[in-house]
Specification:
Distance between the termini: 29 Å
Low-confidence stretches: 1-25
Mean pLDDT: 94
Number of strands: 40
Largest sheet: 8 strands, antiparallel
Shape: elongated
Number of helices: 1
CATH topology of the largest domain: Jelly Rolls
CATH architecture of the largest domain: Sandwich
Strand order of the largest sheet: 2-4-5-17-8-13-14-15
């Protein structure tokens, strides 16, 4: 069965129709239209290009201040609660130190409309600027940070939150309460602060997505999914596919040609060259969760299927990577698979026994499981390192969920992360140099990894053990539960979330 999940016209059609062209009309990448607000002296322009999925905005405009604005704006109609985020860089030295660019949520296209803006000035000044009512003078909150390149603006009811960071660092945030009513425009802007010249800004990693409503029921209600690939050194992200429903947990095949992910209980193979999505034959195993991974040899796939004979609890199976009849491996349930040994002889997984979840390993041929951890707190996410020396895992034995490492026999556990974030699912690069993991904010319970949170993807060298942020995204459960490194250790695959509008 062959499916092609081109996610809604939000992206794919626009990607092919709009690539590398200049626009003043509708349909520019993610956005609906480009508009000069307040009749700047020199009309602006927007360019969207593939395959980098970057936006170049040029514009003039006197200012965005006092009771009226003059600037250029690339926007999309939005309602409800949503997030807009991007990486930002200015082009060239600039004419005026107060040239500005950033993110804006606006109540209309009139030059005096109420709005909230995430503003980065050419001289590095960073501020949350807002006009609470049409025609009123602007107000602002300034940040201590200078010239951040990672920017985000979120609407949650009447609260607007601006988040900024230098790439690699954690967000700094400020919020304001403003009642912007009705349909809004959300997007990217540029203003030269000098009506006689134009300035240019480049926006990458742009996402405009609706967030989960307060009454969303996890595991019943789902938001849309974006399948993404990231260059871990630069942090550049590329959307390669997606769907209105829930795609989860991509594995990168050792030949570098495909990703395997799960959706609606089935597994799919995504072709990185063509974008085709092929249903993977797993025979009776049609209630699979997001705990699956490919053996180091690339010949076998281990999956976690909710077996009817085990009252719907998760059981670990293996099958050929191209699909086929699954073979049951774990005698007890629930068991959630996470990692293969380098020689393909062992599987390591999380097992719930008597309501307590610890880490186990078992021969790939089946038999008796071997318990590796024995605590009343949750241990999860175990994976063998590519050099075969260690098992990396996450544990909340210290009070928060942190990353740990132990020998393959379960001895000598060592804690590797130590801050207030709850860190899950360590994945070691094939060259055994780097670890990537997902970090949930402190307000999320240590033993939970829910959907639809504001999370970080972090990476650290296995020599220095100092984490830095490489991904700022809306996601969580299913984002990066399983090994997802490219074979050359340069990229990772993951899923981000949000509703499409």
């Amino acid at each position: 069965m062959k499916n092609k999940y081109w996610f809604p016209l939000i992206l794919m059609v626009m990607v092919h129709l709009c690539a590398t062209a200049q626009f003043r009309g509708p349909g520019i990448g993610f956005f609906d239209a480009f508009t000069d607000i307040g009749s700047p002296a020199i009309p602006g322009a927007a360019i969207y290009g593939e395959p980098g999925q970057e936006y170049s905005l040029t514009g003039s405009g006197a200012n965005i201040w006092f009771g009226e604005d003059s600037f250029s704006y690339l926007w999309k109609k939005m309602d409800g609660d949503f997030i807009i985020q991007a990486r930002l860089s200015f082009t060239g030295e600039g004419t005026n130190a107060h040239r500005k660019a950033g993110l804006m949520i606006r109540s209309g296209l009139d030059n005096h409309a109420a709005h909230v803006s995430c503003v980065i000035h050419g001289d590095g000044l960073t501020s949350l600027q807002y006009r609470a009512q049409d025609g009123k003078d602007m107000e602002e909150m300034t940040f201590d940070i200078s010239g951040p390149d990672v920017i985000q603006l979120e609407k949650k009811g009447t609260r607007f939150t601006m988040s900024v960071a230098h790439f690699g660092e954690l967000y700094q945030q400020k919020s304001v309460e403003i009642d912007l009513e009705g349909a809004l425009q959300a997007g990217l802007f540029i203003c030269s602060h000098d009506d006689s010249v134009t300035e240019e800004a480049i926006f990458s990693n742009v996402r405009v997505l609706g967030t989960a409503p307060d009454d969303l029921q996890p595991y019943r209600d789902y938001l849309g999914s974006l399948l993404e690939v990231m260059d871990v050194e630069s942090g550049h992200r590329q959307v390669i596919g997606g769907a209105p429903g829930s795609w989860q947990a991509p594995n990168w095949t050792p030949d570098g040609r495909h990703l395997i992910f799960n959706a609606d209980g089935s597994l799919y193979r995504f072709d990185l060259t063509t974008g085709d999505t092929l249903l993977l034959d797993t025979d009776f195993a049609n209630d699979n969760n997001n705990d699956h991974a490919i053996s180091f040899s690339g010949k076998q796939l281990a999956i976690s299927h909710h077996a009817a004979e085990d009252q719907g609890q998760s059981v670990v199976y293996t099958l050929p990577v191209e699909g086929g009849m699954p073979t049951r491996i774990t005698p007890h349930s629930p068991s959630y698979f996470h990692g293969w040994s380098v020689d393909d002889r062992w599987l390591v997984y999380t097992g719930g026994r008597g309501g307590v979840y610890n880490i186990y390993k078992i021969p790939v041929t089946g038999g008796e499981e071997i318990q590796l951890t024995d605590l009343e707190t949750l241990d999860d996410g175990p994976e063998f390192s590519p050099d075969g020396k260690y098992i990396y895992f996450n544990s909340c034995r210290s009070g928060t969920m942190q990353i740990w490492r132990m020998g393959t026999d379960g001895n000598n556990p060592i804690q590797l992360t130590f801050d207030e974030y709850n860190d899950w699912f360590p994945h070691i690069s094939p060259d055994n140099r780097w670890m990537v993991f997902i970090s949930f904010p402190p307000e999320v319970p240590a033993d939970d990894h829910p959907f639809y949170k504001r999370v970080y993807l972090r990476m650290m060298s296995l020599d220095e053990m100092k984490p830095r942020v490489i991904g700022y995204l809306y996601g969580g459960q299913g984002t990066i539960n399983v090994p997802s490194w490219s074979p050359d250790s340069k990229k990772i695959a993951f899923v981000s979330n949000g509703t499409f509008q």
